[in-house]
Amino acid sequence: MQKYQESSLKITYSNDVILSVDDMKRHLRVTGNDEDSLIEIYLKSAMRYVENYTRLLLLEGTAQQVFTLPMMVSSTQFLITGSTLINNQYLSLGIGNAISVTSITCNTESDLTTQKAITSTYKLLANMNKPRIYVPDGLIFTDNVAPYQITVSYSAGFAECDIPNDIKVATMLVCADMYENRINSVKQLPTAAEILLSPYVVNQGV
């Protein structure tokens, strides 16, 4: 069972777009070039909207996720045998389409500035709807003390050729809604976009 809870998630997004401005203009039935830069801004904003809704990265980027012990749980409550933390066997990632883990480090409550590497054997379970880092033998620490925080750095995102068409169409629908309704327009997803995206939404439950 997971004891650590996500306390922060920092994402570095790609600056590219999943559709060309010309593709988006065809969807909008726009023939002139006067609004090309505006349409590109809307397209990038629509991508962020879809990414926030699904918790997926549409193009490859990086994430740094910090997990912290809940206030009501003390690190001394964990069962530690030797230097192995038994009770915490997985960490739920906040971005669904994780590709690879760059590093896992930790620090203790008494020393929040020193990051120490975790030497456990771990596996990335890149299930898009419920991504996890699984530690089959428990988390291993050098000081026999359960860390206060664990920091996971990883890459995530679709390769451009692998982006599902449903997500592309949903992004176009959101972008079109922004383009056509320019006064604080997107309060909720257009119904068709929500239906298209629902199979891809990351499950944040335990």
Q: How would you sum up this structure, described in words?
A:
The protein is built from 4 helices and 11 strands. With 206 residues, it is of the alpha+beta class. A 5-stranded antiparallel beta sheet has the order 1-2-11-6-7, with no helix packed on it. Helix 2 (36-54) packs across helix 3 (165-180). The longest helix is centred in the N-terminal third of the chain and has 19 residues, at 36-54. It is elongated and about 60 Å long. The N and C termini lie close together (8 Å). The model is unreliable at 71-88 (pLDDT under 50).
Name the descriptors.
206 residues, alpha+beta, five-stranded antiparallel β-sheet, three-stranded antiparallel β-sheet, 4 helices, 24% helix
Itemize the secondary structure elements and their pairings.
Layout: E1 5-12, H1 21-28, H2 36-54, E2 61-68, E3 80-81, E4 84-85, E5 90-92, E6 98-108, E7 111-117, E8 123-125, E9 132-134, E10 139-140, E11 149-156, H3 165-180, H4 191-197
Antiparallel strand pairs: 1-2, 2-11, 3-4, 4-10, 5-9, 6-7, 6-11, 8-9
Helix pairs in contact: 1-2, 2-3, 3-4
